[in-house]
Amino acid sequence: MAKVFISIGSNLSNPVDQVKLALKKLGKNPLWKGVKSSSLYSTKPVGSENQPDYCNAVAELETLLEPEALLDELQKMEYEQGRIRLTKWGPRTLDLDILLYEDSIIETKRLTIPHPRMFERGFVLKPLQDLLPSFCLPGGEDIKKLLKECADNGSVKKIY
Among residues 72, 85, 95, 142, which one is catalytic? Predict the structure, then answer.
């Protein structure tokens, strides 16, 4: 079983409910087990700021799925919750990203792990820290140090 961390985000169609529904679906899926989740956070959008704030969380799970098969399952969940891909970093009902897959470093056409921008995003690092308070990310970087240096750290507010 591989330990995996998934970023969850939504800023459309009642974002808190969208994230809670995604966590519920993750917890009931037989393709993985041991789902744990961070607190929920309210965050400002990245990219186009002319959109609603996001609700973000991180989930931890264990799976036998290979990374791209896991990505397929997560994209299926996004679609089931109304995800439409119109613009990069645009508003969405649900966004599920694989942050970490064990200590793997993966670069394919469809997938980069660790997630390429996770180290600079407070809306990923704060919820990840909920699950792993003294975690060192691949490359040896301490999560606390990364959070201090993160530009959007101050805009990430715990809501649940």
Answer: 95
- Which domains does the chain carry? 2-158 (3.30.70.560)
Residue 95 annotated in active site: yes
β-sheet bridge partners, residue 37 = 59
Does residue 17 have an active-site annotation?
no
Mean pLDDT by groups of 10 residues along the chain of 160 residues:
95 94 95 95 80 93 96 94 70 92 91 86 90 79 82 73
Confidence (pTM): 0.90
